Write the structure tokens for this entry.
Amino acid sequence: MKSLKIAVVPAAAMALLLSGCVPGGTGPAPDENREVITDASQMGEVTVTVLDTFTDDASPIGRWMASVVESFESEYPNITIDRQSENSNDVNSTLRLRLSEAGAPDIVPANQGWSGVGDLASSGLLLNLDPYSEAYDWATELPDTILQQSMASADGSNIGQGSQYGMPINQGAFVTAFYNRAILDKLGLEEPQTFDDFVAALEAAKAAGETPIALGTQDGWPATATLLALQAAVGDGDAIRDFVFAKGGDAASTGLEDAAALYQEWVEAGYFTTDFAGVPSSDALQNFVDGTGLFTFWYSGFLPFADQAQGDQFGQFILPRQDGGPLTAVGSSSQNFSIAANTEEADAAALFLDFMASATAGEAAMDNQIIPMFGSFEPNTDSVMLNDGIESLNAVTESNGYLPYFDWATPTMIDALTVNLQLMFDGQATPAALVEASQANYDEFRSTK
């Protein structure tokens, strides 16, 4: 039996996905005349250096990376992958400088959002991958709603549109609803199949003296996980994508106010952990896996289960849409990988990016008890909770319902959401005020573009 070692995301690491900085400068256009080679046999003996942040070799994602490298080198014996693993904080504090110097790694973990592809691509530090996207047919092979998370404009005006400056790996996380199987059984309920089922389960848990939803927001930003799950369930997916990627619309069109109003309604109904504003998120999540709370909203693959046996006492699903429509879910791959603009091994590096996004890489994720990010897979592993995650993945893939993090819209949107959620919980602000603050944050940032 495989172990299920899942860890809570540290605040700094998760915030990394949700933050950014204003890009500047202009990046080079792709060389349309340069020949793109996809046949490994024509690349000669090559070593590709890969910088990643998977420093724990015993973790599921560390084992996944090692497995993918081994499989790649087995299939392409003339290409050697030289891994360099470093702490994510160290990588992100030095990546810009390293990419500007000779000897930079060929492949680097440039995050989605403004602080990653947005900033680095516009500074000319990342290779424009459009020629490789065409050669490998990425636009057909991968969901467009995932690929756009790795796109940016060379002039620094936008993320989510422009050219391809990175590739997602086929392993990731969604904002997910987890549930305690034993408590659900005790209440005589089954896994919610509709939004109304979910609300009914909250009411039943409250009536039975159980905590309906485990939540801790003392550290601020974790409050947004529940907000994003609700927005995905009640908002318009296209409007969310358009707003985040500056393709039109405004914050009011995304369902943000409806999600915040529902959040506030549930707070007032007592559906969350008592005094949750004073509870650290790590404590709330640990209490949940220890048996307190029917549900919690968090990122798939990131709860502190000791092992598979404990994990399988819980289930997971994407919160159904309130309108009964196809699933939409906030999520991204665990890492976006880009190629350094000054690489001398672009062809081999691009081949490895293609491999990390392949179905083979997705199967490797399942082998290591973590869900792939895209594709269709059979939920037939020996972990019932992982099988739940795979079923959700298949449904989101079928609907092409991947949503970006709302706070990717600006480098400081996560702060605007966090502050205004706390004000709303304290009765000092309304859902409408939260939307107004988000729009103001957006307008101020877009005025610099």
In short: The radius of gyration is 21 Å. The CA atoms of residues 68 and 379 lie 21 Å apart.
